[in-house]
Amino acid sequence: QWSLDVAGRQLTIETGRLAKQAGGAVTVRYGDTQVLATAVMSKDKSGVMGYFPLMVDYEERYYAAGKIKGSRFIKREGRPSDEAVLTGRAVDRTIRPLFDMRMRNEVQVVITVQSIDGENDPDIISIIAASAALSISDIPWDGPVAAVKVGMVDGQVVLNPTEEQEAKSTMNLTLAGTTERINMIEAGAHETPEEDVVRAFDAGHAEIKKIAAFIEDIKAEIGKEKREATLLVGTPEVEQTMRETLIAAGIEDALFGTKEEIGAQTAAVKERAEEMLREKLSEEEQENFSDIFALVYDEVCDTFVHKNIIEQDKRPDGRATTEIRPITCDTGVLPRPHGSGLFTRGETQALTVTTLGAPGDEQIIDTMEVDEKKRYIHHYNFPPYSVGEVRFMRGPGRREIGHGALAEKALVPVIPAKESFPYTILLVSEILESNGSSSMAATCGSTLSLMHAGVPITRPVSGIAMGMMTNFDTGEYKVLSDIQGAEDHYGDMDLKVAGTEKGITALQMDVKMKGIDTDMFQKTLAQAREGRMHILGK
Fold first, then answer.
1. What pLDDT band is residue 469 in, cutting at 50, 70 and 90?
2. What is the DSSP letter of 519?
3. DSSP 227
4. Contacts of 109 (CB under 8 A, 6+ apart)
5. Which pLDDT score, from 0 to 100, does residue 282 have?
6. Mean pLDDT throughout 363-372?
7. Which residues does residue 329 pair with via DSSP β-bridges, in sequence order?
8. What's the rounded Cα separation, in Å, for the pair 504 and 189?
9. What is the pLDDT of residue 48?
10. CA–CA distance, 530 with 247 (Å, rounded to integer)
11. What is the Cα 40 distance to its own chain's centre?
12. Of the candidates 441, 420, 442, 439, the residue with the CA atom closest to the CA atom of residue 375
């Protein structure tokens, strides 16, 4: 058992008592909130070879709060609440960038909330627990990471605020990262100025460094020897032949144009390259051909997209790094609903519809953590036709729940108080086209729809997705405004920023690299503000 003082409270990590057959298992206690985290890696490679199969399951338990599930007829706890989905996503987004993406063993991290005190949120404790479990386990992983929550009360930064402090705080910022960089951000704020957010970022990272070093010490003391994972790799000669063939087939030029043009051009190049390679490579060299070729293809595209942007400021659709795609806004596009707004930015389009109801229509929230009513609700739908695909539609997945929550959070500070506007407000965003940044399109669509419905919001809110391309050899990087699909897929960062002319209302960041530092964050927020003001002007 090990303890560390974090924001005036004891953080205790214990191992060796529970779940001893897992690859790594720890309990982490902070106040009277306690979670169990386990990490296990399969012995064999997954049957799915196209991607690294990481599963993160966050399990809420009503017993943790001394509660019995509300329904009179069904007492078994079933599907996870939206809050559980969001916490699971936060853990996933923090730990995933630190795995080797060529790994093909299945890795499962399970976090079970065992006790909750109502003062200390289990979300940051879950990230710390997952990090500790992976660090001491036999699973190859480039951690540890740690997490903190940062609030701002009366202009002062508060680390891991209590429930009472959170109620007074103008910002709720969750940060996670390593001793060197921040790699996950989730925030809701009451129109907080950029400089205050940067101040909170710095204070949070200082505490993260302390906790991550603490986990590193535990790992050095009792960590298991790391197993060898199954990696998807071809021989160096085969991979080099694939790279040269793709370049000869014209992959670099194929990466420019509209989404449709790039899709057609790259498909033709892939087909040409595959034909050439089938002739060049022996039967033995063609083992796992499709999987290795897909991996090398992605790496080659990634290299060229980075090179063109960093060296020539040349984005796939020809825009400058700060340029935003053409925007059109329309309201009243549906005849009968109370309010509707259509927001189109380039090849991304969101139709957001507002319905106003009586106070009795409020949503009753009954979860492990809270019993409350909710009067402003936002749902986000992402049908397959929005990207020209065919697939089963089986209700919202984790991504839809996450995007809906982000767009909802962005508008909360401008929604009128119940005393002056007692209606229940339900927004539904239908993503009709998508080429990057659809959650921010839903945010802009929400503003249009609410104003059309006559909801007296205090100020309009706009949102923008920011990206980054980094040269890891020189440290040079370029910040991109309003990223689209290819820049999201091959880029190193996706930072969504929403807010009003006064300040920021919501942030969300994931990365594919090790993370970002203060200078990168500051520069991105400043460039995002210019973009947000441009969008508000529309």
1. very high
2. H
3. P
4. 37, 38, 39, 54, 55, 56, 57, 91, 95, 130, 133, 134
5. 84
6. 87
7. 343
8. 6
9. 63
10. 37
11. 23
12. 420
Q: Which has the closest alpha carbon to 34: 101, 119, 145? A: 119
Q: Which residue, chain included where needed, has tokens 């057959």?
A: 21
**Amino acid letter at 324?**
I
Contacts of 97 (CB under 8 A, 6+ apart): 183, 510, 511, 512, 513, 514, 515
Phi, psi of 364 (to 5 degrees): -90, 120
Backbone φ and ψ of 156, nearest 5°: -105, 140
From CA 314, how far away is CA 204, in angstroms rounded? Answer: 35
Which residue has 């991607």 as its token pair?
51
451 SS3 class: helix
User: 467 near 149, Cβ under 8 Å?
Assistant: no
Res 72: pLDDT? 80
For the segment 362-367, the average pLDDT, to the nearest whole number, is 90
For tokens 């919001």, the residue is 457
Cα diameter, the chain? 75
Residue 288 confidence (pLDDT):
79
Asked if residues 109 and 55 have their Cβ atoms less than 8 Å apart, the reply is yes
pLDDT by residue (tens digit) across 32-75?
999 999 999 999 877 666 789 999 999 999 999 999 887 788 88
**Look-up: residue for tokens 């019993």?**
371
Tell the burial category of 56 from Cβ atoms under 10 Å away from its Cβ (0-12, 13-18, 19+).
Answer: buried
Report residue 401 as tokens.
Answer: 């729940």
Paired tokens of 74:
């069904």
Paired strand residues for 349:
344, 433
User: Using CA atoms, how far apart are residues 144 and 180, in angstroms rounded to an integer?
Assistant: 11
pLDDT at 290: 87
Q: C-alpha angle 516/521/526, rounded to 5°?
A: 155
Tokens 């400058």, residue located: 320
Task: Average the pLDDT over 450-477 and give the result.
Answer: 95
Q: What are the residues whose beta carbons fall under 8 Å from the beta carbon of 16, sequence distance 6 or more?
A: none
pLDDT band at 233 (very low <50, low <70, confident <90, very high): confident
Burial of 416 (0-12, 13-18, 19+ CB in 10 A): middle
C-alpha 514 chain-centroid distance: 14
- Answer yes or no: are the C-beta atoms of 213 and 187 closer than 8 Å: no
Cis status of the peptide bond prior to 144, with omega within 30 of 0: yes
Q: Are 442 and 536 in contact (CB under 8 A)?
A: no
Cα dihedral sign, 511-513-516-520: negative
- 8-state DSSP, 292: H
Residue that is written with structure tokens 């002062």 in the block: 156
* Lookup: tokens for 4: 């560390």
Structure tokens at 438: 């659809």
d(CA 150, CA 205): 10
Q: DSSP string covering 355-379, please?
A: EEE-GGGPEEEE-SS-EEEESEEEE
Q: How far is 319 from 324, CA to CA, in rounded Å?
A: 8
Residue length of the chain: 538
Q: Kindly tell me the burial class for residue 250, based on how many C-beta atoms sit within 10 Å of its own C-beta (0-12, 13-18, 19 or more).
A: middle
